[in-house]
Design a protein that fits this description.
Radius of gyration: 42 Å
Binding site for Zn(2+) 2: 165, 168, 187, 190
Order of helices and strands: HHHHHEHEEEEEEEEEEHEEEEHH
CATH superfamily of the largest domain: Urease metallochaperone UreE, N-terminal domain
Largest sheet: 4 strands, mixed
Number of strands: 15
CATH architecture of the largest domain: Sandwich
Strand order of the largest sheet: 10-11-15-14
Shape: elongated
Zinc finger (CR-type): 135-213
Domain CR-type: 135-213
Number of domains: 5
Domain J: 6-71
CXXCXGXG motif repeats: 148-155, 165-172, 187-194, 201-208
Structural class: alpha+beta
C-alpha cells in the first residue's frame, strides 16, 4: 500500500472534521482491518497500520497542525515517528507555526534585548486650591538614572563597541531539548542582551547609565484637580543600551481650603448670616479664588441650609473654556450676646407675633397639641 496517501483520505473524513468525527472513522476502519479479523491477509495488515498512523497524527492538535501545513515532511528526521527520535527538525517547524504566540525567534537576533526603553517614574506634587485655580509654573527636582554621556548609554568604552554574545550568537536566548518540548531561556552569559562588552566604560562601569539629579520646569494648567496626572515625555529612567528614556508622571494633590470645598468645577462655601439679614433679606460679600469679591443677594425669609448659586465664578474648566459655579449654603446664626436695647426690641417683636411669621414652627406645635388632645 502506498504511504503517500493523504491521512484524511485514509480515514475518509474532511480536512475540517472535528476530533470526534476522526475518532469514529478510525474505530470503524480499525475494526474492519484488524489482523485478528483478517488472519494472514497482508493487505488488511498494511491498511490497519496506515489508518493507525493517520489517526495517531490527526488526534494530536500539534501534530495535526504541523501535518496540515507541511504534510509528512513535518515528521521526517524522526519527528513524531517511532524508534530513535530526533525532534530538532520538528521543533523548528513547531516554532514557525506557533512562535508568534509563544515567543519564538522569528528570525536571527529577534530575541535580543540590547536596546530597552527606560522605566516610567512618578512624582507627587502638592498645591493649594488657589494654585489649582490659577495654574502654576514650578520647578521640580528628581533623581533618575540618565544615559552615560561618555559612552552614549551603550556601556562600552568610548572608541569600542559591544560584540555579539558567543554563547547565544546574539539571540539573547538559549534553547534546550526536554523530551517533546524545546525550552527557551535567557542566555546566562549576556543575560538576554544578545551582546557582551569586552571593554566597559569607566564612567558607568558598563551599565550605560549613571545616577543624576535633574531640575525640571513644569507648567501646572489652571483647573487641575486631585489626582490629575501630568506627563513629561522622556524625563523618566534612561533606556538600557541606548534605548529611549521612560516618562515622568507628576500626580497633583490639592490641599484642603479653609473656606471652599470643590466638586469638579463647582466651589461650595458655607456662609453664616445674622437672623435679621435672614428675616429682612440683603446682600453678603464672598471673596472668590479669582481675587474678586462677589455679591450674593439674600432673599427675605431665607432658612438655614438654603443654597444660592453664583454662575461662572467657580473653578476653570481644565483644558477648556469657561468656569463652573460657586454655591453658597446659608447658615442662619442666632445671636448669643444682646444689649439691653436689643432685648427690649425683641421682646416688643415677640409681643406682636401671631404665629404666621414662622409657619413651620407654628404648624408643628398646632399638630402636637391636636395629637395630645
Amino acid at each position: 500500500m502506498s504511504t503517500d496517501i493523504d491521512y484524511y483520505e485514509l480515514l475518509g473524513v474532511e480536512r475540517t472534521a472535528d476530533g470526534q468525527t476522526i475518532k469514529s472513522a478510525y474505530r470503524k476502519l480499525a475494526m474492519q482491518y484488524h489482523p485478528d479479523k483478517n488472519a494472514g491477509c497482508k493487505d488488511s495488515e498494511a491498511k490497519f497500520k496506515a489508518v493507525s498512523e493517520a489517526y495517531d497524527c490527526l488526534k494530536d492538535p500539534q501534530k495535526r497542525a504541523a501535518y496540515d501545513r507541511f504534510g509528512k515532511a513535518a515528521f521526517q528526521q524522526g519527528g513524531f515517528g517511532g524508534g530513535q527520535q530526533d525532534f530538532s527538525g520538528f521543533s523548528d517547524i513547531f516554532e514557525n507555526i506557533f512562535g508568534e504566540f509563544m515567543g519564538g525567534r522569528g528570525g536571527p537576533g529577534a530575541g535580543r534585548t540590547a536596546a530597552r526603553r527606560g522605566a516610567d517614574l512618578r512624582y507627587d506634587m502638592e498645591i493649594s486650591l488657589e494654585e489649582a485655580f490659577a495654574g502654576k509654573a514650578a520647578e521640580i527636582t528628581v533623581d533618575v538614572s540618565a544615559a552615560c554621556e561618555p559612552c552614549g548609554g551603550r556601556g562600552a568604552k568610548p572608541g569600542t563597541s559591544a560584540r555579539s554574545c558567543p554563547t547565544c550568537g546574539g539571540a539573547g536566548k538559549v534553547r534546550a531539548q526536554q523530551g517533546f518540548f524545546v525550552v527557551e531561556r535567557a542566555c546566562p552569559t549576556c543575560h538576554g542582551a544578545g551582546e557582551v562588552i569586552a571593554e566597559p566604560c569607566a564612567a558607568c562601569h558598563g551599565e550605560g547609565q549613571v545616577d543624576k539629579r535633574k531640575t525640571l520646569s513644569l507648567n501646572v494648567p489652571p483647573g487641575v484637580d486631585e489626582g490629575t496626572r501630568i506627563r513629561m515625555t522622556g524625563e523618566g529612567e534612561a533606556g538600557a543600551r541606548g534605548g529611549p528614556s521612560g516618562d515622568l508622571y507628576v500626580f497633583i494633590h490639592v490641599k484642603r481650603h479653609p473656606l471652599f470645598e470643590r466638586e469638579g468645577t463647582t466651589l461650595f462655601a458655607r456662609c453664616p448670616i445674622s437672623f435679621t439679614t435672614a428675616a429682612l433679606g440683603g446682600e453678603i460679600e464672598v471673596p472668590g479664588l479669582d481675587g474678586e469679591t462677589h455679591q450674593i443677594r439674600i432673599p427675605a425669609g431665607i432658612q438655614s441650609g438654603k443654597q444660592i448659586s453664583k454662575r461662572g465664578v467657580g473653578m476653570p474648566v481644565l483644558s477648556g473654556r469657561g468656569r463652573g459655579d460657586m454655591v453658597v449654603e446659608i447658615q442662619v446664626e442666632t445671636p448669643t450676646k444682646l444689649s439691653s436695647r436689643q432685648k427690649e426690641l425683641l421682646e416688643e417683636f415677640r409681643a406682636t407675633e401671631t404665629g404666621d411669621e414662622c409657619p413651620a414652627s407654628h404648624g408643628f406645635f398646632s399638630k402636637l397639641k391636636a395629637a395630645l388632645g
